[in-house]
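[09:14] KT: can someone run the structure on this one? pasting the chain below
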Amino acid sequence: EVQLVESGGGTVEPGGSLRLSCAVSGFTFTDYWLYWVRQAPGKGIEWLSGIHSTKGYKYYAASVKGRFTVSRDSAKNTLDLLMDSLKPEDTAMYYCAADSRYSELVRDFADYPYWGPGTQVNVSS
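[09:31] RB: done, C-alpha cells below
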C-alpha cells in the first residue's frame, strides 16, 4: 500500500526559509509523479509543484516559481520542498501527493490517488 507522510512544518518569519519532506513508500513501479499542493484557511486547494520520480522533470506554479525548489532524494526515498523568501500568504496546510497512472504531468489534483495527511506552515512575525 502506498503511503505518504509529510514533515518539517512549523512557524517561520517572513523572508525566512523552511524545508518540507514527504516520506514515500509502497510503490510497485519505479516511475511515478510526486506533487506538492497546499490549502490556506478558507480557501481551495492550490497546486504548487510536480516532479517525476526518475526523469527529473520539474514544474512549478507561478506563485512559487523562483522561491520554492522541489527535489527527490532516492537514498532517503523522500520528496522535498525547499521554501525560500516566505510570505505571510504562504501560510497553509501543505500536502504531498502521488500518481503512477500517467507519463505526463497532471496539474489537476482532483483525482490524485495518494495523499499524505499534511503539515502546517505558518509564516508570521
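[09:33] KT: thanks! The mean pLDDT is 96.
[09:34] RB: yep, looked fine to me
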